[in-house]
Design goal:
Number of strands: 12
Strand order of the largest sheet: 6-5-4-1-2-3-12
Distance between the termini: 28 Å
Oligomer: single chain
Largest sheet: 7 strands, mixed
Structural class: alpha/beta
Length: 394
């Protein structure tokens, strides 16, 4: 059982930023009840579904229970109120003001459950000129400087990350904040409201090195001018590798691995600062030398001389990489109606309270009847809710 066992999380979120955070809590033992509209959330409609769940939806909602609710009427709201009354966490990522219009503002919810951790995830925050705009990941990438960080090395034209990085950074931030709030409640008995914007989460994530040029107000510099300083991708005779050096020791190791000991005494590369000043020359020479070797040969030589390196893996090569296999980083689990499903295992390994992938993603309303029974609805009352379309069920 995970460290969050016996905690109850009401997940009203959709897409990725909230659902992925709730999934992490679920992996760590929490009971997560996903509350969806009668027609289901948008992510169910995106991708290639199996058993009603596209792959991204599956990965963001595994192990949860699902109830489908029409929250426009009083009967649906009453079901949600019953869920709220004994919940530990409520998560929502509607646009600012939407929960209040539904009647479930933080104040209203806290009046019914003062210990609850109420989590509001938004795109831009609760106020400001962007607050009520619709938002998806590319919008946050555009506004956070991500496209400048990813800009083409030669042309400096902006480019985007090819994954929904803003949503996932927000989900990690949310999961960490929720557990901190739960820890505070454990000490004091106090619940609280967590406000988290995707924009703030991504800015904080990028800041340490991505925003180093504007960190010291009286010593700003154009960090883009040194954007070529990182060693990234090198072509070999038969593929691509990465190899990077920072310290003098690593540079000496690189020179030995490349059979270019003459470069050790070259004043252009004799210190870390010198190598940064002449980064393009260093990378050009390094690339020319690495191109003379096969990937297997040069990786072995780099390892021999303790130079950080790795092959560049295609996504379908992950399953056979020896380090990923040794770590057990990817789990294959047989789930009824899904077959063999691969998932990245929960990354944090707890020695006493192991995390685990406890189940597949739920069908829309799969647990509606079960949840209603736990909330005290009789079988006849539940049937009326289902027949009237207040509650959906598979």
């Amino acid at each position: 059982m995970g460290p969050l066992q016996n905690l109850k999380v009401i997940d009203l979120t959709s897409m990725i930023s909230g659902p992925a955070a709730a999934s992490m809590l679920c992996d760590q033992g929490a009971t997560v009840i996903k509350v969806e509209p009668i027609h289901g959330e948008q992510m169910r409609l995106m991708g290639r579904p199996r058993n009603g769940s596209p792959p991204t939806f599956f990965s963001c909602n595994r192990g949860k229970e699902s109830i489908a609710l029409d929250l426009k009427g009083d009967d649906g709201k009453e079901v949600l109120w019953r869920l709220v009354e004994d919940a530990d966490v409520l998560m929502q990522n509607f646009r600012p003001g939407a929960m209040a219009r539904l009647g479930f503002s933080e104040d209203a919810v806290r009046a019914r459950n003062e210990r609850i951790i109420y989590v509001s995830i938004s795109g831009f925050g609760e106020s400001g000129p962007y607050a009520n705009q619709r938002v998806y990941d590319p919008v946050i990438q555009a506004l956070s400087g991500a496209t400048d960080i990813q800009a083409h090395r030669q042309t400096r034209d902006p480019e985007m990350f090819r994954v929904v990085i803003a949503d996932k950074v927000t989900s990690l931030t949310a999961a960490q904040a929720i557990t901190s709030a739960l820890f505070h409640r454990e000490r004091t008995g106090e619940g609280q409201h967590i406000n988290l914007s995707m924009l703030d989460a991504v800015l904080a994530f990028f800041w340490p090195e991505g925003m180093s040029g504007i960190t010291y107000a009286d010593a700003e510099f154009n960090v883009a001018a040194g954007s070529g300083s990182m060693d990234l991708i090198y072509k070999t005779k038969d593929g691509f590798i990465t190899a990077g050096v920072i310290s003098d020791k690593e540079w000496i190791g690189m020179c030995h691995a490349l059979d270019r000991r003459d470069l050790i005494e070259d004043e252009r590369f004799a210190s870390t600062r010198a190598r940064l000043r002449h980064t393009e020359e260093r990378k050009r020479i390094t690339a020319q030398e690495i191109a003379k070797w096969s990937s297997k040969e040069i990786l072995a030589r780099l390892n021999e001389h303790d130079v950080p390196n790795a092959p560049l893996l295609r996504r379908n090569e992950l399953l056979e990489n020896e380090q990923i296999v040794a770590n057990g980083s990817i789990q294959s689990i047989d789930f009824e109606s899904f077959g063999e499903v691969r998932q990245a295992r929960p990354a944090a390994r707890f020695s006493k309270t192991a995390s685990e992938i406890s189940g597949p993603s739920p069908k829309l309303g799969e647990h509606s009847r079960e949840i209603l029974a736990r909330l005290g609805y009789s079988e006849d009352e539940s049937q009326v809710l289902l027949s009237d379309g207040v509650v959906g069920s598979t």
